[in-house]
Amino acid sequence: MKNLLTLPFGVFACGLLFAASVTAGASFDCRKAQAGSIEAMVCQDVELSALDRRLAAVYDAATKKAVNEHPPLLKAAQRGWIKGRNDCWKSEDTRRCVAESYGMRIAELQARYRLVAASPVAFFACDGNPANEVAVTFFETEPPSLIAERGDSFSLMFQQPAASGAKYEGRNEMFWEHDGEARIRWGFEAREMRCVKKAGAAQSSSFRLAGTGWRLRAIQSMDDAQGTTVVGDPERYTVSFGVDGKASFRFDCNRGSGIWQATTSGTDSGRLEFGPVAATRAMCPPGSLDQRLMRQLPYVRSYLFKEGRLFMSLMADGGILEWDKAF
Fold this sequence. Notes:
Number of strands: 18
CATH architecture of the largest domain: Beta Barrel
Order of helices and strands: HHHHEEEEEEEEHEEEEEEEHEEE
Strand order of the largest sheet: 1-2-3-4-5-6-7-8
Mean pLDDT: 86
Distance between the termini: 22 Å
């Protein structure tokens, strides 16, 4: 087990307190756990230790998916989760709180980073307006979860007990489906929308792009004099599509971030746009393509998947960005 960000449950360790087998322990060094702490509770509990090891494995898999994530949202979220887990001492049932905290975090990572089986995306038209659409993807996590997308925002929700149908709740959102119809609340104290499942909808572009990363292979110019620029080191120019609608970029020696939004027009094509990109401004070596790529991204208007590659077309036949799959 490799180090998990040097966080409190970072290094694979000695095992449970009072247990002889290392393999039965938590993912962190129990010898460093303070008496009476949540970490000590995890070390002394076989089931909690197993949950900790499982989370460490899931986190490791998510880290590989988030290799180009910038800013490093996964690391920050993990630190926040640890703080929340350790606050379980305030709960009336501390052990249950800790166990549920592990379960929810495991499911969250599995859904956000597409680590488990997922359903084809389902589209729901709300309040009789086809443009008021919510795209929903269900994940085989425990507890069951979904990611709902509306415009450029998204919500992760977990299944809740319900008298009928399937009900899911997130931070400020709710999805309750029964017989192809759904009630959806989007935002704090927002009114419920009445939504109908759309039949025969194609898989959304967001579903296909979210959680993927790409390396720049070539820049094709429509100017015959300029032709095609083949990228010598694709790893230095990357884009990753976050499940939260945020995009992360590497521009050679610079880093950038922004938002992305896609809509489907065909099985392998559709409209794609990036919002304003905030980037660092370091001076890269001569011959770098960083400034050229930064200038072109705001003009991306469509995409095409072909032979395992992603092609982004610029507006007004301004050129094509060709990418290879990174993850």
